[in-house]
Design brief:
By secondary structure, this protein is mainly alpha-helical. The chain has a domain of 36 residues. Helix 1 runs antiparallel to helix 2. The longest helix is centred in the middle third of the chain and has 17 residues. The protein starts with 22 loop residues before the first helix and ends with a helix. It holds the Pfam family Histidinol_dh. GO terms for molecular function: metal ion binding; NAD binding; oxidoreductase activity, acting on the CH-OH group of donors, NAD or NADP as acceptor. It comes from marine sediment metagenome. Keywords: Oxidoreductase. This is Histidinol dehydrogenase.
């Protein structure tokens, strides 16, 4: 029977993705992101967006 290749270094590496957003983009999608987080019971994510929006307004 055939088998797939063995393990490689990539199997043990943690991949991390970073996303950046302009202040204008945050103002545009922030309120929707807050509502989405609340609707999915992701309170900490919603609070994070709220804090970032408040920081923009300070």
């Amino acid at each position: 029977a055939r088998f797939s290749s063995g393990l490689s270094v990539l199997d043990f590496m943690k991949r991390t993705t970073l996303a950046q957003m302009t202040p204008a983009a945050l103002r545009a999608i922030g309120p929707a992101a807050e509502r989405l987080a609340q609707s999915e019971s992701l309170e900490a994510h919603g609070l994070s967006v709220t804090a970032r929006l408040r920081k923009l307004n300070d």
